[in-house]
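INFO batch 0412 | record 1 of 1 | parsing
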Amino acid sequence: MQRAGNGVQPLHAFPKGRAAAARRVYWACACPLGVRLSSPLHQASLSEQQQFRALNINYQALIGSLKYLSILTQPDISYPISKLSQYLENPGMPHFTAAMQVFRYLKGTMFWGLHFRKQDSFNLQAYIDADWANCPNTRRSRTGFMVLRNSHLISWKSAKQATVSLSSTEAKYKSLADACKDVVWIQNLSSEILTNPSATPALVHVDNRGAIDLALSQVSQNGFRTKHMDLCLQFIQDLIAQKILKISFIPSHKNSADFLTKPVGRTSIHRAISQFITDAPILAALCSQAPSMSACQDPVPGATNVADAFMHALRDELRSDKQGINCPGTALGPDHLDGQDQAK
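INFO prediction complete | emitting tokens
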């Protein structure tokens, strides 16, 4: 996981393991976009849409940069970025404001990194969640899951489901099927590269007893009345019968994948990711090798004067405290974003 220039921050070694951080990527993404991080937007007589167009911001590039971070080392912003990605064609000021909220959150967590420690065992576990019919426009549910090797996060996802689910059980079962595909792929990969792969079934945590009962049943459920759902059912039942995975119930307040499907507070996010995220001081020292602000003084060709103002604001940010303002999900509730497409 190492690229030159403004790419992936290398895996840094320190006494208790290794950590992958994205501070270099954060600055590389933020500098050329011409956006101000700390100061609120000034009120103007223009409409919100005219005000947003006057800023001359490339919203697609902004969200693409954040998407890159969410895939790389920032699972905690996966939900808001997935949400903001729905408005790439016709963004407005609420979406831009929410994206800036994510940048503020990243400023306070730029020294966080995924923590990888040397461990001899290879035990997989997964946390599954789904937010049923949470989209007010399409009523499609949202899938969220994470897969861990021991305490190492190696896969995660937050995405809207492709079809409408008629019950919360069906929505959870779709999430379960998606997560099981990742688990099986990782197990197959480990069997090829490890000398002694683990024979222990992967432990999958689900907070819906209806989905668990379906997975443990021995007969096909005609209630689904669709082939794709019946295939998902048979797929998971076969994995359980082959002892490839084992399903376990977990209360919703203990489900670590909760922040991948809905807006949650800072405390909930920190509790969920504390087992695989590090903010060790030594990581901060190692990350200081990232490009200084002088490396970002020349914006990309075609950048406007807004980028120059952004550079001064960014320098002020570096001199100020290093605390984030709010968690990214709080700015992305239904009152902020949902329904914007219909209004336009």
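INFO post-check: The CA atoms of residues 186 and 192 lie 10 Å apart.
INFO record closed
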